[in-house]
Write a structure and sequence with these properties.
This protein is globular. The strands form 3 sheets. Strands 5-4-6-7-10 form a 5-stranded parallel β-sheet. Strands 2-1-3 form a 3-stranded parallel β-sheet, sandwiched between helices. A two-stranded antiparallel ribbon has the order 8-9. It contains 10 helices and 10 strands. It is an alpha/beta fold. Strand 4, helix 7 and strand 5 form a beta-alpha-beta unit. The chain has 2 domains: about 90 residues, 3-Layer(aba) Sandwich (Rossmann fold); about 130 residues, 3-Layer(aba) Sandwich (Rossmann fold). About 40% of the residues are buried.
């Protein structure tokens, strides 16, 4: 069964719009400042969605395109200015970053109170992508009649995360571990990949390459959450698996587009509202 991320996201956006209206009644407009250094097409599309959805709920979204050749030192100076600007409530440096930029220093430079992407080790916020996966899984959980609560249900399942990248795999694993769920991980060098996948009840795929998962990789009734995406030769975005291939094998799956992405944007803006209100 297809899981509609747009439907989940819209409920979140409706709530956020009401919260923004209350803040504006007090003379406060939530303000997210996004720094971009990349020409990655998927990232550009994602940034455009953040801007579009942010404006729709009444937030201010500033997108600043910096020279991709910028040094880490100059980027840190820019972040420092944004940290000290009281009119800005959230700061993002859009990933992926150019090779010369120090990823860790960049993440740690953002004020934890403004780190709405959740990359700082002491961030006030959970990574939106991790929370989005949980929201998707909770939607699936609510379709069952279970004696267990949601977290108990998750803990009863064999969960595998495919891919360990800094923008998706790692934050998802971090989010699951935080609630007491210990997922297995599969990377390119994992030797018993086939065995792990065939025994998994829930597979969260966060790679961004074609055919990372096919129906032969998964057991009947598995739940698939597709986080990774890429631009195909047809000019359309695709998941790590093809919907037509897995739809009759998986019990639930997220599509691309319209799956995790919209929920991810909604949860990012939810973090922005929390940063503004606090």
């Amino acid at each position: 069964m297809r899981v509609d991320g747009q439907e989940i996201a819209q409920k979140i956006f409706n709530d956020l719009k009401q919260r923004v209206d209350k803040l504006k009644g007090k003379g406060i407009t939530p303000h997210l400042h996004i720094i971009t250094l990349t020409s990655n097409f998927a990232s550009k599309v994602y940034v455009s969605q953040k801007k579009l959805k942010g404006k729709r709920i009444g937030a201010k979204i500033t997108v600043e395109n910096l020279d991709p050749q910028i040094t880490t030192q100059d980027l840190l100076k820019k972040i420092h200015k944004l940290n000290n600007d009281s009119s800005i409530h959230g700061v993002i440096v859009q990933r992926p970053l150019p090779f010369q930029i120090d990823e860790k220093k960049t993440a740690e430079a953002i004020n934890p109170r403004k780190d709405v992407d959740g990359f700082h080790q002491y961030s006030d916020f959970s990574p939106p992508v991790g929370i989005s996966v949980l929201k998707i899984l909770e939607k699936i959980y609510n379709s069952f009649e279970e004696n267990l609560n949601f977290e108990g249900w998750l803990k009863s399942k064999k969960i595998t995360v495919v891919g360990g990248g800094i923008t998706a795999g790692k934050p998802i694993i971090k989010t699951l571990v935080r609630i007491g769920v210990k997922p297995l991980t599969v990377a390119s060098q994992t030797q018993n990949r086939a065995e792990i996948l065939k025994n998994s009840d829930i597979i969260i795929c966060a790679v961004g390459k074609p055919n990372i998962l096919t129906k032969s990789d998964i057991k009947k009734g598995a739940i698939l959450v597709g986080v990774g995406m890429f631009m195909g030769k047809d000019g359309k975005f695709h998941s790590d698996y093809e919907e037509e291939d897995i739809k009759d094998t998986a019990s639930f799956y997220t599509p691309t587009p319209g799956g995790v992405g919209p929920v991810n944007v909604a949860e990012l803006l939810s973090n922005l509202l929390n940063a503004t209100e606090n």
